[in-house]
Amino acid sequence: MRDQLAKLRERAGELGNHHRKFLGFVESHIEDLYARLEGRGRVGAVHLWTRADDVGAEMDTVLEVADGLESQLSCLGCYYSLQFLLMNLTAIDVLKIPLAEEYSRAVTYRPFMLHVGAQFRRLTASYMGRLLLLFLEGVQAPEYVICGVGTRSDQDDIDVGIITEGEGDTAGFNRAVGRLAAEMLRRACNLHFHLSEHVGDERYSASLAEYEALLGKEICDFVIISEMLGAAPMLGSRPLFERFVETITSRYFHHPDRDNRHHEGYLRGILGEIRSLIRGPRRARAIHPKDDGLRMIKGLISAEKVIHGVREANAWQILDRLKEVDSARTAIYRELESCLDFLEIFRYLYQMLVVQEEEIRLDDPDARQGLVDVARLMGYDSLGVISASDRLLVHYYECVEGARSLVGGLVEDVRKHLASTSVFVRMIEDAKDEEARGVPGKNFAVELIRETRFFRGTRYWDDFLVALEEDGGLLLRRFTKDIDRQPKRKRAALIEMYGELLNWDFVSNMTLVSILAKYHPEVVSRQLLSDVNSAFLRNLSRLACRGEPLVRFFHFYPDAMDRWLKSLGHDRQAQLLGMLDWDLCTEEMARAYSNLKYLIQIRCGSSRYFERCFDRVFEQRPEYLRGLDDWGKLEDVSKGVLGEIEQAETPDERFEKLGLFYDLEFFRVGLMTLAGVPVIETNGAFTEFSDTYLTTLFDVSRQEVNRTWGRSVATDDQLAIYVTGGHGRERAYDDDYDLVVVLDSDDPEILEYSRNVVRKMNAELAARGILPHHRFADYVGRFVVLKRELDEILGEDREDVFVDKSQILGARLVVGSSAFGRKFERELIQPYVLNRRDSYIKQMAGEIRSRHRQAREIDGELFHLPGEIPGGLDIKEGMGGLRDIEMICLICKAKYGLSVPVNLRFLDRVGKMDIGCREWVPVLKQGSNFLRSLRDVYRLTVAADNVVLLEYLGRPAAVLGFRSEPGMSAEVKLMKTAADWMTRMGETIEHVIDGIEA
């Protein structure tokens, strides 16, 4: 016997550490058991070292040789442990057989799992039956049946449901079951009484009457129903089990001629569960066979079971039956069966060989070594440099993805079935018909909430939500009107009831409020939307875990989430931001959390000017909401959209894609600005994409004119487009385009052609919210100015001609040849500006002095007075503002004959040209950078206005890194800094002018 025990101990090392518990029981009690068997001459009647065919009969023999209850429990537990270990070791040996015979590993999975499941169920049922008889001694038990309601092969615990009926000592019976549970936990495995705990007054059992009383009122937890539908009798009265099936579980099957309310409720519950599993998190460093695939597969199988009236309980048997009754989908069921086979044996072997846990950490060395053993038993070998365990994991992920796809497809069939049998179908159709005909009827909103009480706890209402938007929102109009026509108190109560649905089904409730936001104000009134949002946020704040469902909803429905966020307003958006309290566990959801938080912050702190841009982006490409934290990816997407323009089939498509490119890039650079990226980088990025946009817009517009004209007109080196103003100075976020379109030709056809192209460009710019300004159009009466006309305009002897010369001097070529650019400088800038620089500089200096005198004379809040903190500053036109900087730069450009753009790097060039400038260049450069940064941030967070107001500087101060201190808020610090810079730069500029004029 000692040799046998030593062999068992050695072989048990192949199993997981949890098997030591059973080995310990054997080592402690095997000598006593053997002695008792030997003493009674029954050693040959019991298999101690090999698998037994009739474990029940041998357990009876063990009980016969034992004396007293404690001895019986010890000997019986020893025998169970022996058989349990031998069962698992035999299973390992069986799996090795196909490897030797070299035939397909996959075909062995299903029969293997069916066999080990039946073996374990027979062993545990026999053990539990003997234990219960011992504990029931002297108890007049009621009629009972103990059902297995979980997976047969699960060895970490056994899910059971106990049903009773009739007279008897129920309390004594439950005490006996309690002792059974304790003994099973001690010597075998844990028993779960989930089914009975949720139905009856007793902890371990529930009567048929209790099932009837509870399930007749509401649908309850679909998990309980799934357990009932999967129940198989283990011990006790089979007639009672049959009555249970007839009176309780049969109601969940589809009956064409009966009330299918229970059937519908179960399907709503299971569909909601499947949806959450399909869209559940995918762990980056762990796998979870149950959550990754098994639960959704079995949920779908259970749904198909009640639809097609399949009475089998085991998943594989149900699939076999479904192949017969739903033969059109036989191939799909076979694929689903393959996924089930793989995942079940994978999970079973890992838990048997490694540890009885559901999650498998791939970064855990022990877990990885365990997968090596699993791969070996499942028939995987290394292939080149790819290890067997890696090949196993590849197939695991393929199987999970395959299961999600298959289940997702079959779910559509379940949805269609539900839509045809729902008790809500007639209610919805009647309400839509009444609304279409303008006929009053029952209050649909009230009737709907009443009807849903039976379905409390279910999580699938897509059919109702889809119906709301059908026929142009006809049902939604009726739904909202019926809410609004309720008396004030009843209306508030009704809205609160719908808000409480959040506790049942977060996704459906979020979808409802997003639909209300979508149809505001055409169908949904402002007051109703506000009241519903208030109720929703109140109920959301009461949830123990609210951040997680918000993040998940955003991850899968980003457009719906953003639509709802827009409806909240900044105060409620800030309130919602405070609810994102989820401690994330997956990389996928961590990024969604980051993007949602970022989105809310953007919504809370963005100007309408900026919102218009990203609203257009999100309306066309809501998937970009998931990538707010990846500027590089957004840029790649923008380039891809730009590349699609050539493939577009119609002019409208080309203009639409070009507009999307502009909005995407505007949004990307805006995010960079709000993240604190230096202004020199953001202005450079903005200029690059806006130049690309303008040149492409010219090309697309010319193509469209060619199409309408039926021919093209060659402009060669005769046409050019210059940008002036802010774009000419490479400044970001201007809401207009100052353009100079120059044609060096008197050909009427070329002129008319060019005018048509520019008119098309103007229309598209206006559609983007960009105002095209053509300064010289005031002189010539058209958007295209001839070069000879510019000669005349610039040569005029007018007091304000310096303004036109500044436009030309600050112009930057965007469309046109370099040859045209050289001619432009040679024949316009050189003779009219550079050759007359003294006159130009004098006029510009006089204009600056005049502006400063006017600024000092103004008595108001919008201009800085030394020693005060202003309520507002005009950072563009005010003394020492951006206009002053631009003018002094143009003066320097004329003085030194520079041909580079007047951008943020221009002053560096000036400093290198003249050593005398090095004192004031750093002041103007730093001050200019600061004011540009403030201007950009203010435009994105408050308004596209050059006047910054103290009361709105909270968000700009935060972006620019200003923090409050005792006695001074961040807003005041920012305003004071801006005012000080403007004062200093104003004084510096006057000093520079004095020096230049001297």
From TrEMBL:
MF GO annotations: nucleotidyltransferase activity
Domain PII-uridylyltransferase/Glutamine-synthetase adenylyltransferase: 873-991
InterPro entries: NT_sf, PII_UdlTrfase/GS_AdlTrfase
Pfam family, one: GlnD_UR_UTase
Gene3D superfamilies: Beta Polymerase, domain 2
Keywords: Magnesium, Multifunctional enzyme, Nucleotidyltransferase, Transferase
Protein name per Swiss-Prot or TrEMBL: PII-uridylyltransferase/Glutamine-synthetase adenylyltransferase domain-containing protein
